Structure formats: structure tokens, C-alpha cells
């Protein structure tokens, strides 16, 4: 018997027969997101699904958790056809324990199931869908459903990582269970900690093997993450440079999701070059890559350093450029006769998988690069095409309607070193500006590509008080500071972080730039980190953007600021040394731009708050209450 207890309704409890809306939300009101986590599910049993599916819940806290009043829900990926099961009786999970809920509709409950939800959830989606827990309308945890490699195998959250409700949103952290066969019916580990996921998911090369690459020199290889169709977009072509074409031609691509380019084939409609490298050729979402004929700047006309090289001639009279992942065309562009020394570019606001289909999206480049007089913007955002300056020299060559899962990629880290310093339990104070002022409208024509619609729109520029610094990790212990530091930002209204500058006390700064909108909905949190790759950053949940400077560990006059065009929108200061492996967080009751100014609004993350590989903190989640 697992260490959980449950008690039936007794006379006098409001949950006995009373309408759910009258008591359920009050019963679970004290639960925070992440207090209960989904860690395993069997959504595709071998044979008939009915009566055999299960869901595993985990209590990651050092105290018991009551499930009374929570709703377990399952739906399609778009939220439609939702079915629910209400915990309408007192039910408690012991610290660190697991609870298995099963689709048991008749007969004896199997030994691996603790509680039946009957037919309340219907059938879980075999290949897609959503599964979650909520208290009223407040989400406690929710995960996307994915398909196992074969029927009869449970999907499990990676046993290397501390289960948390932000990290388990990432489907790349789930894998097929390698646990034992249970009762001769399925493979899984219901009611127990999961085993670590093996590194078996990745892109297949021509030989059918798994592509591997190393995020940084000396680190263990991981599976390559190829882009799906539309996640890597051709944005600029130089097919007729001044000088030797075979040395100075180039192609620019933009990633609309974190991807690796290892193993992709770049070339024309008749031939191509497979991009090779033991180190990951990684791009974050919104990152540009330059692919060139030669890497030597003397030979290639003064190009910035290319990410990779290719060996296919691009015809001056017109032709096709394609990027393929195996047999799948990720993107393809058809171009017409090229002008010498002038690249053809897609207008910056149309640099996405939809708008680059149109001839009107393309125009001749106008910026100069190198020393030969060539025009183009290799490796960076293009300029906007103006009316009358569009170019019929390029059009979308089409792509197959198929693709591969890109997963999450390595964002790199400028500094893998660690900062020295002692620890202290004193926290920061907010040194933010007065919480007033008009919003910054941003530069005219400032746009980004919406992650939902794929269309360009105006950037939603934050104003004073609309973004709040709520947590930071200056001294991780499970990984080096140079890849494991992070900062959390809370949005009090819908905003984009494009163009926002994060700065420390020494003036070191990073401006958050991306073609995609760095969007935050009201009440949601962004994680800004040194590395995008969870294999490097300590197992952080999804990172919205990266920064490149150190957070000091030692005592002194320290600060962090969020700025827009030199105007301070938010700032915090502190003077004490960092506590190794522990983030500093604002108390939930002070998570706004007024109350986080007050002394004592920040504290060390409690020992119950763990993420990734085990450091303390709640990146991307609501903070835990500070001791009083």
C-alpha cells in the first residue's frame, strides 16, 4: 500500500451531495501550481483502451497535499471535447508519494491503480491531447499528450529531473517507459519514481541512425533536433556576389523554433550539401544563421562567421534553394535572375513561413557588408521592403506537408565559469522607479511575428509597472553559473519583451531581440536564462530568451534592471551574497511593482521548491510564500 490516505465523506461535510461550485474551489484554494504534478500516463494500451488507461500524480512537497476539490480533465489539444473527474471526497497524498488513477469501469481495481475515475475522462488521446489538474479555473498542472512508440507502453517524465509543472510542459522531457511489464499487460512504473529517459529521440540520418551532437566541446552528445516544416525559413540569398561566386555565395535562414541544423541538406533542386559537425549547430527561436560557400572572411567577401558551409553552386540566372531534413523539404525558395552584388531578402516583418510565399515579400537588399561593395544583411534581421522596391526575383518553392519534432535546442553560453562567493539569507529590495508614467510606444513600425498566428504585428511594449522582476538564480550548484543562471519576469498585462534590455549593476546588458514575439500573457512569467538547453541549464522549463552577463555571487551593491530605450521600467537592488543553489524570490503577496518595493518582500526559495536537476526555485511558476 502506498503512503497516501483517503477518507470517505462523513455527515456534515459540504462535499457530500452539495453542488461542486459551492465548495470545490474553496477546498483546494491553498494549492499552488506545481503542488501536484502529472508524471506518467498510459494513453494507448495494447488492445482496447477502455478500462486500461491510467494517470499518475506526484506530490513533490515535503508536506501532505489534499486533492479534495481538484478537477482532473482531459481534452483534445485545442481544449475541445473536455471531460472531467472531480475529487469530491477528502483524499490526501503523503510527501513525495505517487497516486495512480485508472479508467476502471467494472470488476476489481487492478493492483497498480489506487483510485478509479471510471468513465469520467472517456478515452485519452492516443497521439495528442491535453491532460491536467485545476482548482476551479486555476491550473495546477497540465501536460500535452504524446504517442508512445508502440501500444502498451506508458509515457513518463524524465526521472533525471525533479517533477515540476513548468518542466513537464516540454514534450522532449517525456519518453516511453523502460519499466517492467506490469501484470503482463503494459510497460510502465505506476506508483513509483520514473527511470531516467534514455537519449534515443532525435533526427534520423540517411542511414536510419540517430544524429548526435555535443552542445559544447567536452560535453556529452545529445540527439539532434531537426526543424519541422515552417520552423526554419529562408530569408535572404546572395547568388551573384561581387568576386568569385564559388567563395562568396551565401544563404540566410531564420529559426522560428529552437532547432539544430546538423544533418540538414542545403542546396538547389538538383544537388545539396549535408551540414556536418560534432558540435550542435543550434539556433534559438528567432535566431538567424548564415550558411556560406567559404568560412574564410578574406575569400567570402567579409562575411560574418557562418554557422556552416555548403558546396553547391547557386545559378545566377535563377533557380531554387532548398533546405531538407532527410526526405522532408523544410523550406524552399525559387528566385529569378540575380543582380551582381545585391542579395535578395524577405522583408523583416514577413520573415515567416506564411508570408515568404509571396513575391511581394521580397526585395533587393540595401545595406552594405564587407569591403567589396556587396549589399545584404547576412546573419541579422533584414530591412523592411518599401513600396516600389519589391523584387520578383524570389518566390516560395513550396515544401512537403510533413516534418519532424524540433524539441529544444542549445542556446549557447558565453561564459561557462563560476563566480565565487559566500552565502547569506538576506534578500534584495526593489529599487524600481515610481510606479507611474505613460507607456513607451516604441520605435515606429516595431513589429514581431506572432507565435500563434505566424503573422507580423506591432510589438506590445511594456510600460512602468507592467513587468516585474520576481525571482533570480545567481549561484546554481548543479551546473556552472555561466549556463545555469536565470531571471524570472512577471507580466501584469499582455506584453512583448522584444527590445527590452536586462542590465546589471556594472552596466553589462543584453537587449532581448527576436523576429518572433517574446510574448507574455497577463499573469504569466518568463524565464530569461544563460542557456536555452535544459541539458546545460540545470533542467529549466522553457526559456523565453537568453542573456549573456554574469549575476554576481559576492556581497556588494547589486542590481538588475529592465529598460526600454534607456528608460527604467523595473529594478531591484540587493547587497548580500548569493546562497549556492538557492534562488531569491519575491513573496507572492508582493508580486507587483508597488509592494515589491517594501523591505522583506524577497526571501530565499524554500527547500520544498525544486526544479530540474535539484536546485531550489520556482522558475516560470508562482513563488512560494516567504516565512513570516
Described by strand count, sense and barrel closure, the largest sheet is: 6 strands, mixed
- Quote the average pLDDT: 83
Q: Please state how the strands of the largest beta sheet are arranged side by side.
A: 9-8-3-2-12-13
Instruction: Kindly estimate the percentage of residues that lie in beta strands according to DSSP.
Output: 25-35%
Q: How many distinct helices?
A: 4
Give the overall shape, derived from the CA principal axes: globular
**Percent helix range:** under 10%
Number of strands: 47
- What Rg do the Cα atoms give? 26 Å
Structural class: mainly beta
Gap between N and C termini = 37 Å
Low-confidence stretches: 1-19, 200-209, 395-427, 429-445
Describe it.
The chain is an all-beta fold and 628 residues long. Helices cover 3% and strands 29% of the residues. The chain contains 4 helices and 47 strands. Strands 9-8-3-2-12-13 form a 6-stranded mixed beta sheet, with no helix packed on it. It is globular and about 75 Å long. The N terminus is likely disordered.
Amino acid at each position: 500500500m502506498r503512503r497516501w490516505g483517503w477518507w470517505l465523506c462523513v455527515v456534515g461535510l459540504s462535499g457530500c451531495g452539495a453542488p461542486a461550485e459551492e465548495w470545490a474551489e474553496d477546498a483546494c484554494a491553498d494549492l499552488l501550481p506545481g503542488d501536484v504534478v502529472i508524471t506518467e500516463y498510459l494513453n494507448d494500451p495494447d488492445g482496447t483502451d477502455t478500462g486500461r488507461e491510467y494517470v499518475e500524480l506526484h506530490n513533490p512537497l515535503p508536506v501532505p497535499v489534499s486533492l479534495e476539490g481538484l478537477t482532473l480533465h482531459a481534452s483534445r489539444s485545442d481544449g475541445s471535447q473536455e471531460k472531467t473527474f472531480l475529487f469530491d471526497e477528502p483524499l490526501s497524498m503523503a510527501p513525495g508519494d505517487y497516486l495512480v488513477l485508472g479508467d476502471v469501469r467494472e470488476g476489481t481495481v487492478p493492483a497498480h491503480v489506487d483510485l478509479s475515475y471510471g468513465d469520467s475522462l472517456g478515452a485519452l488521446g492516443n497521439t495528442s491531447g491535453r491532460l491536467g489538474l485545476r482548482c476551479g479555473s486555476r491550473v495546477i498542472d497540465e501536460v500535452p499528450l504524446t504517442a508512445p512508440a508502440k501500444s502498451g507502453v506508458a509515457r513518463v517524465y524524465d526521472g533525471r529531473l525533479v517533477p515540476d509543472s513548468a518542466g513537464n510542459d516540454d514534450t522532449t522531457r517525456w519518453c516511453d517507459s523502460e519499466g517492467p511489464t506490469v501484470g503482463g499487460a503494459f510497460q510502465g512504473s505506476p506508483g513509483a519514481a520514473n527511470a531516467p529517459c534514455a537519449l534515443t529521440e532525435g533526427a534520423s540520418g540517411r542511414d536510419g541512425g540517430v544524429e548526435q551532437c555535443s552542445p559544447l566541446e567536452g560535453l556529452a552528445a545529445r540527439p539532434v533536433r531537426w526543424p519541422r516544416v515552417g520552423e526554419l525559413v529562408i530569408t535572404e540569398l546572395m547568388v551573384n556576389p561581387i568576386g568569385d561566386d564559388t567563395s562568396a555565395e551565401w544563404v540566410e535562414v531564420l529559426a522560428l523554433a529552437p532547432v539544430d541544423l546538423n544533418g540538414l541538406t542545403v542546396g538547389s533542386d538538383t544537388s545539396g550539401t549535408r551540414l556536418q559537425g560534432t558540435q550542435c549547430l543550434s539556433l534559438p527561436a528567432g535566431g538567424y544563421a548564415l550558411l556560406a560557400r567559404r568560412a574564410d572572411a578574406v575569400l567570402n567577401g567579409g562575411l560574418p562567421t557562418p554557422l556552416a558551409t555548403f558546396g553547391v553552386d547557386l545559378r545566377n540566372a535563377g533557380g531554387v534553394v532548398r533546405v531538407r531534413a532527410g526526405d522532408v523539404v523544410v523550406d524552399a525558395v525559387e528566385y529569378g535572375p540575380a543582380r551582381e552584388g545585391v542579395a535578395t531578402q524577405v522583408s523583416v516583418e514577413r520573415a515567416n513561413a506564411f508570408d515568404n510565399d509571396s513575391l511581394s515579400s521580397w526585395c533587393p537588399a540595401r545595406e552594405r557588408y564587407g569591403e567589396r561593395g556587396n549589399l545584404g544583411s547576412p546573419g541579422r534581421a533584414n530591412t523592411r521592403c518599401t513600396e516600389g522596391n519589391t523584387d520578383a526575383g524570389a518566390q516560395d518553392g513550396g515544401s512537403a506537408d510533413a516534418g519532424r519534432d524540433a524539441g529544444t535546442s542549445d542556446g549557447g553560453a558565453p561564459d561557462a565559469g563560476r563566480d565565487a562567493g559566500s552565502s547569506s539569507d538576506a534578500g534584495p529590495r526593489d529599487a524600481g522607479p515610481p510606479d507611474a508614467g505613460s507607456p513607451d510606444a516604441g520605435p515606429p513600425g516595431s513589429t514581431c511575428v506572432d507565435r500563434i498566428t505566424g503573422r507580423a504585428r506591432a510589438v506590445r511594449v511594456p510600460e512602468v509597472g507592467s513587468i516585474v522582476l520576481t525571482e533570480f538564480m545567481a549561484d546554481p550548484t548543479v551546473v556552472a553559473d555561466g549556463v545555469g543562471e536565470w531571471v524570472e519576469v512577471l507580466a501584469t498585462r499582455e506584453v512583448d519583451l522584444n527590445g527590452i534590455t536586462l542590465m546589471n549593476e556594472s552596466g553589462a546588458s543584453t537587449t532581448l531581440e527576436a523576429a518572433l514575439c517574446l510574448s507574455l500573457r497577463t499573469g504569466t512569467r518568463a524565464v530569461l536564462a544563460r542557456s536555452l538547453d535544459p541539458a546545460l541549464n540545470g533542467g529549466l522549463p522553457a526559456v523565453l530568451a537568453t542573456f549573456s552577463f554574469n549575476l554576481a555571487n559576492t556581497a556588494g551593491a547589486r542590481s538588475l534592471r529592465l529598460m526600454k530605450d534607456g528608460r527604467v521600467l523595473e529594478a531591484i537592488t540587493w547587497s548580500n551574497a548569493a546562497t549556492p543553489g538557492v534562488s531569491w524570490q519575491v513573496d507572492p503577496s508582493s508580486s507587483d511593482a508597488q509592494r515589491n518595493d517594501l523591505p522583506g518582500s524577497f526571501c530565499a526559495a524554500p527547500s520544498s521548491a525544486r526544479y530540474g536537476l535539484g536546485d531550489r526555485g520556482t522558475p516560470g511558476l508562482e513563488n512560494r510564500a516567504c516565512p513570516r
